[in-house]
Amino acid sequence: MSTNHNHRPSVVLVHGGFVDGSGWEGVYRLLRADGYDVTIVQNPTLSLADDVAVTKRVLDQKSGPIVLVGHSYGGVVITEAGNHPKVAALAYIAAFAPDKGESVQTLIANPPPGAPVPPILPPQAGFLLLDRAKFADSFAADVRPDQAAFMADSQVPWGVEALAGAVSSPAWKTKPSFYLVATSDRMIPPPAQRSMAKRAGATVVETEGSHAVYVSKPNAVASIIEQAAAAASAATR
């Protein structure tokens, strides 16, 4: 029995690498205004197994059904954590959607010719950061310059182990999925986003946006999450 407003699914938002959950604030406010119960996971991004465990702890505390949303590396986390019984639908926001045995590392191993190369600095003590001077251009080109600078200067070091974490059982094989392609993404090339979305059988929406589309285009992001929520409601009736 759901205690949610209008028996709507609740929404759980999972951030990606180099950032924390605060970037979801615009999306959070829109979903809350529409009556959704929303929780934001703060993953340490040390390892995939750890992030999946942290995400599952949040899922455990919610009443189902849940729409589980991931941005970027968060897509890997939701692909694994989405097997949780309360999760009714998945939403990928310019995110990795790995198959069994795949990781961020394998998915980025052979970039297509001419694809922009993310300005990831060499690992330091097992952690990665983006070059601060190139952060805005590669990650957040359509975010307000002062906000992009803040994101660059508040980066969360991303564990090399998290990049290597491979999915054991992709939740998109058993749950409906939705995918928002950011057409000006310079971190995950849009053709790669489209092919992962197609493979997952996702309902796809495309929007003009950078990799930080969840910050710059909260309306488009909230809209696809609400589409996933409608599908989750229909499936659990």
From TrEMBL:
Occurrences of domain AB hydrolase-1 (ranges): 11-223
Protein name stated in the entry: Putative signal peptide protein
Pfam families xref list: Abhydrolase_6
Highest taxon of source: Bacteria
